[in-house]
Design goal:
- It is a single chain.
- The protein is built from eight helices and five strands; from the N terminus they run βααβαβααβαβαα.
- It is of the alpha/beta class.
- It has one domain (about 10-205): SGNH hydrolase (Rossmann fold).
- Strand 4, helix 6 (about 140-160) and strand 5 form a beta-alpha-beta unit.
- The chain is globular.
Amino acid sequence: MIFQQGQRVVFIGDSITDCGRRDHAEPYGDGYMSLVRAFVTAAHPELGLSWVNRGVSGDTVRNLAARWQHDVIEQRPDWLSVKIGINDVWRLFKGRPTEAVPIGEYESTLRALLTEAVERTGCGLVLADPYFIESDRDDPQYVMTGEYARVVAALAEEFGARHVPTQAAFDRVLETTRPDDWAGDRIHPNLAGHAVIARAFLAVID
């Protein structure tokens, strides 16, 4: 287990992290973050960890930059989990190209945010891939999302962070299932889909 007694664990990201944490499922949401918290707490109750969810639906890395001071730096995390990039790609395929984030900007912005977090809080990092739940490996959005996921993997190595390969986790379950078994829109998981993400997290942190 990477967490130690009394540490503060902050999750930040988009709707996959948010999952109603600001309304019907406050304060942790009802997605993968809540599952990770529940299983870690059940396995290691002696640690007395505190957990913070700062996911916001619809966010790109640009939105994270705008709220980084309040939602990350001021939270003083011991560990920071960042899962961002789906909307950065998806907006292009949803006909909103000005809101999509080019891969160069995505990489430079995310690197700058991670650098600031580590330098100002001393936190450890857990970086999770963006993903697209699609069986067709030639699908343009799947291919593009994979490029952004490779940026995350490279940044994880650069920062000595724990890397959560969520795309690979979905690719494995799709060997015997269909995308709509996990998410109706290939993006927003049902409970089983969130469990796929949570299992990938738990394999990395425990």
